[in-house]
């Protein structure tokens, strides 16, 4: 989705109430008008259809309008299945097709998986705060780390986006201030320079560990004649295994641990920490 200054895009932080609504909508049916004589049907028309033509049918506990469709909410699976099995609702004015509700059906989907580095110029000193970064970038980028350098006036953000070009080049940072009977909006222009963030990949040559040495029997002892040489080699190998366990591998200065925050692909671990936003 290309950036456009005439189109508003807000990123929602789903709270408990919205998450509960998503779960509740699993028992909702979308009623889509398939005949469109004027006037356009309203919620009252759908309610009247159930009251006059589907009295014996389970009734929705709520009917809401999601233009141009209607959402029929049910409170149990049995009633939901019965109405959904009708496939259509009709009377002498309107006909609706019925389908299970899905919150993905009418939305635009984006996959954010490109690591980016963003240098932001123009944030005023009194707004030099992590909250300003969220206002500017939440609709375009998942912020994973940032550095705010007051001496240079540059804020550097590392995160994940759809692409390098999906981050706007210019933007505006605003805050309101009430004076008397009016609210004055202070707006500052900012520029954002985005580049691809190169993440080190984990190749075998990148892993640093103590130099490997060939396991050899102890040289200052005579070679056993009764087959104990095999036992000596085994004992030496066990010492080497113990030594390696006590000296964990390191990768570019970071100790490797099986407890990693990256659960999907170890090549995509970032090793950044984002301070909490007050």
TrEMBL record:
Domain of life: Eukaryota
Protein name, as recorded: Uncharacterized protein
Species the sequence originates in: Panicum virgatum (Blackwell switchgrass)
Upper classification of the organism: Eukaryota, Viridiplantae, Streptophyta, Embryophyta, Tracheophyta
């Amino acid at each position: 989705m290309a950036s456009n200054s005439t189109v508003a895009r807000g990123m929602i932080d789903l709270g408990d109430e919205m998450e509960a609504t998503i779960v509740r909508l699993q028992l909702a049916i979308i009623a889509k008008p398939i005949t469109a004589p004027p006037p356009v049907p309203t919620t009252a028309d759908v309610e009247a259809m159930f009251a006059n033509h589907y009295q014996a049918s389970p009734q929705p506990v709520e009917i809401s309008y999601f233009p141009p469709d209607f959402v029929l909410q049910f409170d149990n699976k049995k009633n939901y299945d019965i109405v959904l099995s009708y496939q259509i609702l009709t009377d002498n004015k309107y006909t609706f097709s019925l389908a299970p509700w899905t919150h993905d059906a009418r939305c635009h989907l984006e996959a954010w998986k490109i690591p980016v580095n963003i240098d932001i110029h123009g944030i005023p000193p009194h707004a030099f705060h992590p909250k300003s970064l969220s206002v500017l970038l939440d609709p375009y980028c998942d912020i994973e780390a940032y550095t705010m350098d007051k001496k240079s006036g540059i804020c550097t953000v590392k995160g994940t986006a759809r692409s390098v070009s999906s981050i706007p080049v210019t933007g505006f940072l605003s805050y309101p201030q009430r004076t008397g009977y009016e609210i004055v909006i202070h707006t500052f222009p900012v520029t954002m320079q985005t580049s691809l963030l190169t993440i080190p990949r984990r190749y075998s040559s990148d892993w640093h560990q103590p130099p490997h040495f060939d396991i050899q029997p102890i040289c200052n002892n005579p070679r056993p004649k009764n087959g104990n040489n095999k036992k000596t080699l085994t004992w030496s190998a066990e010492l080497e295994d113990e030594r390696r366990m006590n000296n964990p591998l390191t990768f570019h200065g970071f100790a490797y641990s099986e407890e990693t925050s990256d659960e999907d692909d170890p090549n995509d671990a970032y090793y950044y920490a984002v301070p909490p936003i007050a």
